[in-house]
Amino acid sequence: MSIQNAISSPQAGKHAIVHGGSMAGLIVAGVLSRHFERVTLVERDRFEEGPQPRKGIPQAPHVHVLLLRGLGILCNTFPGFREELRAAGSQSLDMSGDYAWFMAGIWRSRKPCGIRVQAQSRPLLEWTVRKCLLARSNVRVLDGREVIGYTASADNARITGVQIQAPGGGQEETLQGELVVDASGRGSRLPQWLEALGYPRVEETRIHVDVGYGSRFYRRPPGFEPGWRGLILAPDLPKMTRFGTLIPIEDDRWLASMGSWLGNHPPTDDAGFLEFARGLGHPHMYEALRNAEPLGPISLYRFSHNQRRYYERMPRFPEGLAVIGDAFCSFNPMYGQGMTTGALQAEALGECLRQGLAGVSQHYRQRVGKLLEVPWMLATSADLRLPSVEGKRPPAFGLMNWYGDRFQQLAGYDDETLRLFVEVMNMVQSPAAMFSPRTVLKVLTSRPSADVLSRRPEPMAAQAQRTQTA
Ligand SMILES: Cc1cc2nc3c(=O)[nH]c(=O)nc-3n(C[C@H](O)[C@H](O)[C@H](O)COP(=O)(O)OP(=O)(O)OC[C@H]3O[C@@H](n4cnc5c(N)ncnc54)[C@H](O)[C@@H]3O)c2cc1C
């Protein structure tokens, strides 16, 4: 692993401390290793060797899509990252050629669009990032240690370090650093810690969705060739709230996740899980799962609400402190934005540090406030389509939804629009591109043909029967 970049930038300071060693913490530690002499990453869990689940990331057994923008930032931060990931068994998939993808009432064209994404388990993704980080000689990891509070200057205007302890008690220790980054996830205790230092309570918005994910690993059935490698059954909000996705991952396994909004969650017993798959509106998930060998139990994750903390609006905020990832803003995972938004924040912090350490906390929180607008709007405006989800609808909400539906439908049969949609979804293109005059004209004047509306990939069993009788 190259550390070329670690020594190519002028140094902003001697020591930075990150607490929380999940995706946001790992990426930002990588970025900071280019700007500080030393970086210490403090993680409450013990890190095991290899891609293992752990207590601090209960979301690990569920499908995690790494958007292209996030992958790009990881590759910039850790040169050779993509190759490491692929060598570890991550699968490369064309977004249209390899996926059977139902969305907005249409099965998308299977013509390859040339945009490829990586599919792997979340533990493999995190392990690969951690390996890349550990290869940096100026990074130290303190696992099995929890941050229990901050130290501050006499006037509390600057955070000067962290107090750490083994979870459950033991000897307290203090680490001093010029920058402390909170990457401790949506349960971050920063609002309380700042209040204790005399700062006002950070404003917070919650949008309750009660989404439940049920997921299971499977052995990929040998000999089954359904003609697709991955499956996406997107919900048709507000009419249909169930979703399902199946991806091929390392070690010749599948990972299937299904779920729904508003408490209609998948059961965790075998029969109930399959029955949920049957209720997805298409037989593909059901046929696939009923033919595959389960490799372990069904995991359920309940996500109660989107949560945005407006640190950028606080009238006062200490120097020497930054917040990143789910600790700043946590979205309904359905839209696959969490890890990439964390990566974008890490990139933004790196850019702020190019000007040096002075004022970095203030510049960074303002940048993140702006950066969060689009992903927050995309996630919450989809959730707010459900009438029982409480929250303020933006002006022209109905019109925007109508346009969005028509745009997504067009992406089902127009190659150029499909590419644009995939780019916007992967955060490599601004949503503003959906409103170019050429696209608006197409959206307003095109209709899907009868052929498009009746297009269907075959469910697995039909293909399998043919394979067996051939
Ligand atoms: C079911 C589900 C599916 C998801 N799917 C996707 C997806 O497809 N794509 C996507 O991009 N995102 C997805 N996400 C979101 C994604 O998991 C998070 O956005 C991502 O993990 C980044 O979070 P984070 O690093 O900020 O925090 P977390 O992942 O929550 O990690 C916080 C870390 O901090 C540690 N910690 C906590 N407190 C302390 C402390 N005091 N001291 C030291 N360490 C501490 C924890 O042990 C943990 O390791 C999904 C989430 C869920 C729940």
What does this molecule look like?
Residues 451-470 are annotated as: Disordered. It comes from Archangium minus. This is Secreted protein. InterPro entries: FAD/NAD-bd_sf. The protein is an alpha/beta fold. It is built from 15 helices and 19 strands. Helix content is 32%, strand content 23%. The chain has helices at residues 23-32, 68-77, 81-87, 122-134, 190-196, 270-278, 284-290, 338-353, 360-371, 373-383, 397-411, 415-425, 437-445, 450-453, 460-469, and strands at residues 13-19, 36-43, 91-94, 99-103, 106-107, 116-119, 139-143, 146-152, 159-165, 173-176, 179-182, 204-219, 230-233, 243-249, 253-260, 293-294, 299-309, 321-323, 329-330. It has a domain at 4-90 and 120-205 and 308-378: FAD/NAD(P)-binding domain (3-Layer(bba) Sandwich), CATH 3.50.50.60. A hairpin with a 2-residue loop joins β4 (99-103) and β5. The chain binds flavin-adenine dinucleotide. Residues 19-25, 42-45, 56-57, 59, 62-65, 146-147, 183-185, 213, 301, 303, 325-327, 333, 336-340, 342 line the site of flavin-adenine dinucleotide (FAD).
Class of secondary structure makeup: alpha/beta
**Cα Rg:** 23 Å
The CATH fourth-level homologous superfamily of the domain at 4-90 and 120-205 and 308-378: FAD/NAD(P)-binding domain
Quick check: average pLDDT? 94
Which CATH architecture of the domain at 4-90 and 120-205 and 308-378 would you pick?
Answer: 3-Layer(bba) Sandwich
Overall spatial form: globular
The largest pleated sheet is described as: 9 strands, mixed
Strand runs, count:
19
Percent of residues in helical segments?
Answer: 25-40%
Total number of helical segments?
A: 15
List cofactors, ions and other ligands.
flavin-adenine dinucleotide
Distance between the termini: 48 Å
| CATH class designation of the domain at 4-90 and 120-205 and 308-378 | Alpha Beta
List segments where confidence is low: pLDDT < 50 over at least 5 consecutive residues: 1-8
Strand residue content: 15-25%
CATH domain topology of the domain at 4-90 and 120-205 and 308-378:
FAD/NAD(P)-binding domain
Organism: Archangium minus
Region (Disordered): 451-470
Protein name: Secreted protein
InterPro entries: FAD/NAD-bd_sf (IPR036188)
